[in-house]
Amino acid sequence: MKAEYNTRQRAVILDFLKENSAHVSARDILEHLNAMGIKVGVATIYRTLDKLCSIGLVKKFVIDERSGACYQYVRGAECEEHFHLKCVSCGKLIHMDCDFLAEMEKHILDEHGFTVSSGKTVIYGRCAECELGENFVPDSSCCHTHKH
Amino acid sequence: MKAEYNTRQRAVILDFLKENSAHVSARDILEHLNAMGIKVGVATIYRTLDKLCSIGLVKKFVIDERSGACYQYVRGAECEEHFHLKCVSCGKLIHMDCDFLAEMEKHILDEHGFTVSSGKTVIYGRCAECELGENFVPDSSCCHTHKH
DNA sequence: TTGCGTGCAAAGGTTTTGCATGGCA
DNA sequence: TGCCATGCAAAACCTTTGCACGCAA
Question: pTM (2 decimals)?
């Protein structure tokens, strides 16, 4: 087990993630910190995010592969035990904490011989508000080309 | 509506996708065609895949953002309608083709107000073989379909 | 002939890596 | 004082784009 140091950069990055209930990209973090006059290298951001992910404080999402991964602060270890529903439109993260989960896992194990890792799994889709509202973002899995 | 030409490259790419029940990457296609002595540019592959996706013959997945997108030939839109089980140990990809899926989606919609994007969602965990033996052999090219 | 498709290379973006330096414990 | 973390820049990677040429209809 490697020792871990508490550094200024790490604290600053984690703070920013905590402040944001929505997901942020590595670039968002970089720009925010730069805007605050805090100098942090890109590599540090990625390396820190990697560590925060591996200890379970942060979750990584890939919503649109063109614009890179998104990261979001999560409550902690309890999030290892449920699925997460991620709205690809507004970014909202729903913690799917319910009994149905056990049923799902049982089915997948019994019928498909597959042991689900709940905390790792993210179910993508659209939340009620976005499904009804005008908040439309083309689903990248449909190969819509989106130019900037 | 733009006119569409039938070209050699397009036929070759589509053929390769049809031959493969598994997901293939743009790179897989390139290497396969090169190995067969067929010269096709990378740009053509991406442009062709884009078109095949938009007319619904091919589906695009982002399973691991590090290794890029995967493409798969689909009859109809079958891969829109099932989840994928991804073994984090050996990389095997299982297509979860069964009726339980509808039940899952219904529950998630009814109880959580969330519309699942099945084709985009990947459930992570460990397949039976890896769960029993500790054979850790990362190989993302190892895919197969599992029906019941 | 028309104009879509292709090949090539360059460019675009995100993420990783090598190496010397900085800083926590 | 050890070593981990950081910064910088270069590299790696996948993907897109510009442009001239090829080719289907």
Answer: 0.75
| Same domain flag for B67 and B99 | no
Which residues are B94's β-sheet partners? B85, B144
Q: Do B53 and A142 touch (CB under 8 A)?
A: yes
Asked whether B22 and B93 are in contact (CB, 8 A), the reply is yes
B-chain CB neighbours of A65 within 8 Å are: 62, 65, 68-69
Nucleotides of D under 7 A from a protein CB: 3-10, 13-18, 23-25
Give nucleotides in strand C with any atom < 7 A to a protein C-beta. 3-10, 13-18, 23-25
Same domain, A52 and A83: no
CB within 8 Å: A116 and B124: yes
> Domain total for chain B?
2
Q: Is B133 exposed, middle or buried, given 0-12, 13-18 or 19+ CB atoms closer than 10 A? A: exposed
Q: Using CA atoms, how far apart are residues A142 and B55, in angstroms rounded to an integer?
A: 10
pLDDT tens digits for range A87-142: 877 878 888 888 888 899 999 999 999 999 877 788 888 899 888 865 444 433 33
Provide the residue range defining the domain that includes A132. 78-146
